[in-house]
Amino acid sequence: MTQSAFDTANHDDYPTRLAAEKWQERKDPVVWGQWTPEAPLTRAQTESFEKNGYLILRDVFTPGEVAALQKESALLRSGDTGIAEDNVITEPGSNEIRTVFRLDEQNALFDRLARDRRIAGAVSFLLDDDVYLHQSRLNYKPGFTGKEFYWHSDFETWHAEDGMPRMRAISASILLTDNDALNGPLMLMPGTHRNFIACAGETPEDNHKTSLKKQEVGVPSHDALTRMAKEHGIDYASGSAGTVVLFDCNTMHGSNGNITPFPRSNAFFVYNAWSNRVVEPFAAKAPRPAFLSSRDPKGPIAIEAGTIG
Amino acid sequence: MTQSAFDTANHDDYPTRLAAEKWQERKDPVVWGQWTPEAPLTRAQTESFEKNGYLILRDVFTPGEVAALQKESALLRSGDTGIAEDNVITEPGSNEIRTVFRLDEQNALFDRLARDRRIAGAVSFLLDDDVYLHQSRLNYKPGFTGKEFYWHSDFETWHAEDGMPRMRAISASILLTDNDALNGPLMLMPGTHRNFIACAGETPEDNHKTSLKKQEVGVPSHDALTRMAKEHGIDYASGSAGTVVLFDCNTMHGSNGNITPFPRSNAFFVYNAWSNRVVEPFAAKAPRPAFLSSRDPKGPIAIEAGTIG
């Protein structure tokens, strides 16, 4: 275990929240590990992640595991388990639960899921480090009224507002419902992880209080998004429940709203490299609260093999 | 040419805006014409329209025709042509044009498009009658901020608020931009045209003033939509610019919002059978204005063959 020795006084490789938007090259590897035949991902999967900035793994979990996770998810969402109010985000204009934060701390089964070798083992290989959970949540996009989530790079926010030094973090989305093109799937722009778009505008105080419902600062301009979409295209993560989507912290992503009757739900874990632990925010007065940005992890997570549920 | 002889005092085959939602069987044919080898649609196309309630016709217009229509569409949207304000609907929360009404009256090229044999000829065959334009518009769903359009049957509104007696009208959407699953395409539930869902709730006065931005009355309940979506599934109309989508007046449809940079634009014509001309509204105090519901057509449209532009 290495200590984070990042000198915030003298180093900021990704300055952002500037007077004007600015493009720069990524200064970090995408795949930190060295592929060998023993790696938990195939060579093709590893190369695909490196090239596109994401990887869709289908049928990772068995139907029995998926059923157990869905049951637990419904229980958490029902409100019967007494989740503290500050761990919950509701839909704009309603009381329907949109997000449950600190998922691993709320629930033993989801904690076990976060530590599963099929996910965390693959991520740990890609990052070539022990990992801990920077953020952990259950997303619920209801049918009929599910709202959109605008385009953003997670790293831009995590760097600016949480103090994450380097691009050495990977998100995993575990689909708990079948996802197709029409019920607001995760959309990704392949290849956008190779550029960092420093965003225009100073970070307002307590930005996260509004940005979780509708992000205004820390998102690229229409011009930048149009350029990226034309150059790279837009893909989306479809698959049946149990599919896992891994994506790099700097891949541009978002999702449309959902008027179909079919809800979209997923468990979402952000794995950060232990050596990349957060420091002071690079472009905000104070760090975001701990439910968004784990600031003092006890240690790397203990990866576990075997069946869930 | 037959005169509309519908007796509104004694007949309402589709009562709606009731105390409670109610399902009933459709009482009209879907395809009124008799297919022969000379028909403007193939037998398979005709049967598909009858079964699903819609039909997607690809590559109907040449690239040159599409380019001419796109150019004209941009001109109309720019506002330089001086369209009267009451023919224009803007996006909620912005001044961006969402819809231009009375499209055939605004523009000679789009008038010619509406009368094109490849569209109007096919519709006239399906309805087995001369046709006129009940409504005519240009829809523009901008990139990034295009809003959703909630599920509805057009006929329910046209019957209740415009006084359209029977299900003998067909809409044609002519795509002016490439449409895929992600930029808010038209979604349709195949087979839903065979049931009429009488909606709950009285029609508020001037309902169209808000319903065009966000429809509250005249839409099915979540339960009804869930039942239909589970039974029939949800399809969507994708295709490159120049694709034509024909759909029955009672097919349940809607569209999601669009955060992609790619706008979605289409010309939209509602063809009503000449014998099905509107009478007094069946469930509203006064008919909607003429830009939504042509109330006194001079005569059937003159269908034209040949190249457009």
What would you note in describing this structure?
The structure is a homodimer of 309-residue chains. Chain A has 309 residues and is α+β, with helices and mostly antiparallel strands. Chain A has one domain (27-276): Sandwich (Jelly Rolls). The first copy, chain A, has eight helices and 13 strands. In chain A, the strands form three sheets. A seven-stranded antiparallel beta sheet of chain A has the order 2-11-7-13-5-4-3. A four-stranded antiparallel beta sheet of chain A has the order 6-12-8-10, with no helix packed on it. Chain A has a two-stranded antiparallel ribbon with strand order 1-9. In chain A, a hairpin with a 6-residue loop joins strand 3 and strand 4. Mean pLDDT of chain A is 91; it is low at 1-5. The interface between A and B is medium-sized, with 25 and 25 residues.
Looking at this protein, list some descriptive labels.
homodimer; 309 residues; alpha+beta; Jelly Rolls; 7-stranded antiparallel β-sheet; EC 1.14.11.55 (chains A, B); oxidoreductase (chains A, B); dioxygenase (chains A, B); EctD (chains A, B); 2-oxoglutarate-dependent dioxygenase activity (chains A, B)
Oligomer: homodimer
Helix count of chain A?
A: 8
Largest interface: A-B, 25 and 25 residues
Q: What share of the residues of chain A does DSSP label as strand, in percent?
A: 15-25%
Write down the CATH topology of chain A.
Answer: Jelly Rolls
In total, the number of strands of chain A is: 13
Strand order of the largest sheet of chain A: 2-11-7-13-5-4-3
* Structural class estimated from helices and strands of chain A: alpha+beta
Written as H for each helix and E for each strand, in order along the chain, the element string of chain A is EHEHEEHHHEEHEEEHHEEEE
CATH architecture of chain A: Sandwich
Q: Give average pLDDT of chain A, whole number.
A: 91
The top level CATH class name of chain A: Mainly Beta
List low-pLDDT spans of chain A. 1-5
- Kindly give the count of domains of chain A: 1
Which range best describes the helical content of chain A: under 10%, 10-25%, 25-40%, 40-55%, 55-70% or over 70%? 10-25%
Family (chains A, B): Belongs to the PhyH family. EctD subfamily.
Subunit structure (chains A, B): Homodimer.
Protein name (chains A, B): Ectoine hydroxylase
Enzyme class (chains A, B): oxidoreductase
